[in-house]
Amino acid sequence: MIWRFLLFITLLTVVPAAAQTAASDSLQRGVDADARTTELVNKHAEINAKGKIKGYRVQIYFGVDNAKAKEVKSKFLSSYGTDAHGYVIYDLPNFKVRVGDFRTRMEAYRFLKKIKADFPSAFIVESEIELEDIH
Fold it and tell me: Which of 50, 98, 110, 121 has its Cα between 20 and 30 A from that of 32?
């Protein structure tokens, strides 16, 4: 009977101490996980601030003449400079002039309709777009 009583007392002191240690370890891991999560979120935001995403642009020129590509871009910017950005892309051996940074095809389509009179051969292409310049 005394042995049972001593065993009962021992269990009452050992079990709560073990539980407290486990809770402390869990809490410490939670704090570490929060710090790592915060660091990961900050890194993700930093990458996205400078990054690119999949989107759409309108291609207004395709050819082998670099001077002509720059001329088309200049013409576009003088007419529509406030609405979109222009990019000259060199894809051996051709130059492409693409304009705009649109998240959806519908946004690109609206813009295409707007410029179609000045650039009748323009069409929409999927492209990586500048994240901070999204319209």
Answer: 50
* Most distant CA pair in the chain, distance: 102
Helix 66-80 vs helix 105-115: crossing angle, to nearest 10: 90
The domain 52-130: what is its CATH number? Answer: 3.30.70.1070
Task: Find where tokens 């292409």 sit.
Answer: 125
- Alpha-carbon distance of 93 to 111, in angstroms, equals 28
Closest to 135 in 3D by CA, of 88, 83, 98 = 83
- Is the pTM of the predicted complex or chain greater than 0.85? no
Strands (E), 47-119: 52-63, 86-91, 94-102
The model's pLDDT over 104-121, given as tens digits with 9 standing for 90+, comes to 999 999 999 999 999 999
124/114 Cα distance (integer angstroms): 13
Of 118, 124, 133, nearest to 82 (Cα)?
133
Domain ranges of the chain: 1-50, 52-130
- Containing H/E element for 63? strand 52-63
